[in-house]
Amino acid sequence: MTQPLTLEELKQVMAEADLLKSEADVEDALNRLASDITDRLADSMPVVYSIMNGGLVMAGRLLTKLNFPLEQGYMHATRYRGETTGSTDLQWQAPPSVPMEGRTVLILDDIFDEGNTLAEVVKSCEAQGAKEVLTAVLVNKIHDRKNTELKIDFIGLEVEDRYVFGCGMDYRGYWRNAAGIYAVKGL
Ligand SMILES: O=P(O)(O)OC[C@H]1O[C@H](OP(=O)(O)OP(=O)(O)O)[C@H](O)[C@@H]1O
Ligand code: HPA
């Protein structure tokens, strides 16, 4: 495990970061996502799961924009665990909180990076008998290292190939609470 960061270091990370998407950009993206998701799922009484922890902020901000009957749930699967590179094994820290057999499932997550997390989560939902599984992410990171053929159904924003934080995404456990999306200096 890397050494914990101090308060001063964490403030410096933010002070030196590049703002990639403003709070207003994020809000526009969430409104577009809500409209597209409503068009597709308004009549399907879906279960909408957030992938903890990263999906928490997106879910909280998106759910109140969805004006149709849905159930809300969560699951916690983690691959990075406070580091800036992902481990090969996805660790399940909490299984899905609502049964999904025969249901339309929508998975919400903050970022589609190499794609291992969502690919495995989707596979797991299918194995648990979901009728259909759709995915929505706030951010798709653009690079050619995706480890999956999975196509994300709803994408809010695209970002360049840098380590990003804010809107649910952490830098070594911190700054998920930042309202915009930032790239760490040098990463
Ligand atoms: O596309 P991938 O390369 O698999 O990365 C994306 C995943 O990584 C992050 O989760 P993380 O493992 O950091 O867990 P956390 O949300 O609990 O921080 C993020 O929230 C996504 O779930
Ligand atoms: O760029 C990232 N930032 C935060 N969390 C992440 N998980 C995968 N990629 C990222």
Descriptive labels:
28% strand, globular, 4 helices, alpha/beta, binds 1-O-pyrophosphono-5-O-phosphono-alpha-D-ribofuranose, glycosyltransferase, 187 residues, six-stranded mixed beta sheet
Q: What's the arrangement of secondary structure elements?
A:
Blueprint: H1 7-16, E1 18-21, H2 23-41, E2 47-52, H3 55-63, E3 71-78, E4 91-94, E5 104-112, H4 116-127, E6 132-141, E7 154-159, E8 164-165, E9 181-183
Parallel strand pairs: 2-3, 2-5, 5-6, 6-7
Antiparallel strand pairs: 1-9, 3-4, 8-9
Helix pairs in contact: 2-3
What does this structure look like?
- The chain is of the alpha/beta class.
- The protein has helices at residues 7-16, 23-41, 55-63, 116-127, and strands spanning 18-21, 47-52, 71-78, 91-94, 104-112, 132-141, 154-159, 164-165, 181-183.
- It has a single domain (24-183), classed as Rossmann fold, CATH 3.40.50.2020.
- Strands 4-3-2-5-6-7 form a six-stranded mixed sheet. Strands 1-9-8 form a three-stranded antiparallel sheet.
- It starts with 6 loop residues before the first helix and ends with a strand.
- The model has no long low-confidence stretch (mean pLDDT 95).
- It is an enzyme of class 2 (transferase).
- InterPro entries: HGPRT, PRTase-like, PRTase_dom.
- GO terms for molecular function: glycosyltransferase activity.
- It catalyses: GMP + diphosphate = guanine + 5-phospho-alpha-D-ribose 1-diphosphate; IMP + diphosphate = hypoxanthine + 5-phospho-alpha-D-ribose 1-diphosphate.
